[in-house]
Amino acid sequence: MKMERRQGGFTLVELVMAIAILGGAFLTLLFLRAEAVDTAFRYNEKREMHRVAREKLDEIAFGIEENLSGELEFYPDVTWEAQAYQLSNEMTAPFLIEITLDFSYPGETPDQVEEIQIATRIIVDEDDPILQHISLDNVSGLGGLGY
After folding, report:
1. Which of 15, 31, 40, 46 has its CA 20 to 30 A from that of 85?
2. Handedness of CA 20, 21, 26, 31 (dihedral sign)
3. Are 115 and 130 in contact (CB under 8 A)?
4. Are the C-beta atoms of 120 and 143 separated by less than 8 Å?
5. Distance (Å, rounded) from C-alpha 8 to C-alpha 6?
6. pLDDT of 141 higher than 50
7. Whether pLDDT at 97 is above 60
């Protein structure tokens, strides 16, 4: 009897299994990449909102923004509200003022709202526009900060 010699190579079953394994690995990598892109987008959006909130706080502190609440013109559904408090005990200028900004914007889902709260302290003169929002008769000491 003559033995048949088997030629080298892969069987069809082996090739199908290899393609299935490579396909699964590729789909896993594709899913991880899509998730990384979504995470990066959310991070950039939060960073942008922090930047816009800081700009709004600066506008209030420098007297460019005259209101203490409102909505942003270029960002729909973004609202902000500021509070200004006198921290100094002096009844004459210069005054130490703390401005706190609460900034709300839509979250990842339609019913979720993200919030940012930032604050700054400024020294102002008697004619500064921010003083119209503060009662100088009701001095809050140093804001309960233990000074």
Report:
1. 46
2. positive
3. no
4. no
5. 7
6. no
7. yes
